[in-house]
Amino acid sequence: MIDKKVDRLEQDYYDCETIIKEYSKSFYYAFSQLPRHDANAVYAIYAFCRKADDSVDKADNIQEKKVQLRKLEKEVSAFLDGIPQDTPMWRALDDVKQRYKINADMLKVQLEGQRMDVDFKQPADIEELIEYCKYVAGSVGCLLLPILSDNIDNQRYIEAEKLGVAMQITNILRDVGEDCSNLNRIYLPVSLMKDSKYTKQDLEQGIINEAFINVWETLAETAENLYDDFVEELKYYKVEARLPLLISLNVYKELLNEVRNHQYDCFSKKHAVTKARKLYLKKVSKKYIQQHFKG
Is the Ribonucleoprotein keyword given for this protein (predicted)? Predict the structure, then answer.
């Protein structure tokens, strides 16, 4: 007899996989290397994060953003109370919660980060930017930790959060122009722009000069240092998760080089790592794992 419940769950995970394939080719390229059950769990987490992000970014106005966010907050509360919505994403997440020791409260942290975007205020300094990144992306690292690692303690959560911060800073640096023109958000810290003498008007006009490059590279260096530090964390992750994690890290890090290679044009071009480059980074990552984790 065919188990219809299992059949439906497989379809639920497939729906989540479809979302990550469409919206994050870099993440999908890396985490599709995981064993199927772990990959499915990552897809479900990503589907939630995508839904949270869209609830704010795709709404037409502030009021609609708040309405959508409150709706999602109610769904999260019901999920935490053991009453998930009867939809593919929530059914998949409920299965993830049963199979892994995820800290589901991080879903609330993620939504708090989205609330910061609704009531947006340009970060005053790098520390404030990092704090924002902890909410919207550090929370993702913390959600994924129990899926990818059997070493779960406070320090591992701190380090997983840092990787999320690095990736969010990378997203911000890639999307500077789009965030400013389409969302009316400037994530570049006020103090950093002031110190470099790069103005809001410069940003709105898409001016790429020495001042802009200085601001951009200061943040890029922050992200790159976090990436480099995280490589040491790989030893705490499952054997089968090390390569996908390193691929993900290296592909995201490469996004920064893509921007550099195109003369820092974050205004007229959407940067992405090519398939050929991803394949190269996969080989480099695999060689590193083989050399540093023998046996």
Answer: no
Tokens of residue 184, six digits: 């009316």
Please give the Cα distance from 68 to 185 (Å, whole number): 19
Statement: residue 1 has pLDDT above 90: no
Report pTM.
0.94
For residue 230, the number of C-alpha atoms closer than 13 Å in the C-beta half-sphere is 30
- Residue type at 9? L
Q: Six-digit token pair at 80? A: 């935490």
Q: What residue ranges define each of the domains in the chain, with the CATH number in brackets?
A: 1-102 (1.10.600.10), 120-295 (1.10.600.10)
Residue 158: how many other CB atoms lie within 10 Å: 12
Q: How confident is the model at residue 60 (pLDDT cuts 50, 70, 90)?
A: confident
What is d(CA 130, CA 112) in angstroms, rounded to the nearest whole number? 14
pLDDT at 59: 86
What span, in angstroms and rounded, lies between the C-alpha atoms of 178 and 266?
8
CA distances from 265 to 135, 173, 261 (A): 27, 10, 9
Report how far apart, in Å, the C-alpha atoms of 278 and of each of 120, 236, 237, 246 are.
34, 24, 22, 12
